[in-house]
Amino acid sequence: MLAEIRLIHVNEYHQMAEAGILDSDERVELIDGQIYNMAAKGTAHSAAIVRTDRILRELLGTRALIRLQDPIRLNDYSEPEPDVAIVQIDPLDYADHHPTVSEVFLVIEVADTTLRRDCQFKANVYARAGIADYWVVDVTARQLYVFRAPQPDGYQNQLVLLDDGTIAPLHFPEVTIAVANLLPKISG
């Protein structure tokens, strides 16, 4: 007989954190009702997040809110913490809830050691939830993976841009971003 897995609801996940079952500085996220450890952040990973944040704030101004490594709620069983999420402005700055799929413009993950997980596992999670625009910044190979047209079985459109390419977020087509600007500078 197969053992059944008991899925954890988002509310239970929050209760676990409040009760101290999950340590406040423990790097975990809830995906598909299961708690996953998050990878440690390398220097290139951190630098890419800082660069991406700075560029997006300069280009978008007050048209959207940029959240860094904060939860977004995909459904009752998934609350990942993407490296960068561009979301709608909320008058309460999301003090009463985490942004939901309908409030998310773009999700960006930065990959140094997590490329496969971000491009396969997380891409499928985000596609099933209906995230329309999902990017993975690959700091190792210096390229950008772009996933669009979500369907329950995954993204229908996938594109890989090299560091000399440019891209515009779906919700902000007038904003052109050079892929190289998202990547940490190469020393030497």
Distance between the termini: 59 Å
Rounded mean pLDDT score: 94
Largest sheet features: 6 strands, mixed
Task: For the largest sheet, list the strands in their spatial order.
Answer: 3-4-5-6-7-8
Q: Strand percentage, roughly?
A: 25-35%
Structural class: alpha+beta
Overview of this protein structure:
This protein has 188 residues and is of the alpha+beta class. It contains four helices and ten strands; from the N terminus they run αββαβββαβββββα. The strands form three sheets. It has a six-stranded mixed beta sheet. It has a two-stranded antiparallel ribbon with strand order 1-2. A hairpin with a 2-residue loop joins β1 and β2. The radius of gyration is 17 Å and the shape is globular. The model has no long low-confidence stretch (mean pLDDT 94).
